[in-house]
Amino acid sequence: xxxxxxxxxxxxxxxxxxxxxxxxxxxxxxxxNYIYFFALEKIMKIGNFEGIKIFTTQLLELHTGQAMDIHWxxxxxxxxxxxxxxxxxxxxxxxxxxxxxxxxxxxxxxRNFRPLLDVLSLWFQIxxxxxxxxxxxxxxxxxx
Length: 144
Known about the structure:
By secondary structure, the chain is mainly alpha-helical. 78% of the residues lie in helices and 3% in strands. The longest helix has 26 residues, at 49-74.
């Protein structure tokens, strides 16, 4: 969310000044990147290549979805419903899938939770986008 706030030109997150407004963009980018590698280091210490694969796959998905969102915003393009759903499943769903996939590495429960995670990510993102469009207070706090 640190990088997301920079990419979205946010001034507030949930009514509180965003990190880059307080500490500056260079410090926040560096800190956010550090956290990525800190998390990767922790996963590597587990000694299971599957964890590294999950980490890499989901971060690539997340950043691909974010790139689509930024592209549409910056080019004033409205995606189709299917394009929007794909973006959400990558951008928002990537974090949900990351958490569940890592948890399943240590579980005997190997059920496919993707359909549920896709619905949750769509609900979460659509709600957030709807609030951005409908709520003056929410929009004020997001400052998009």
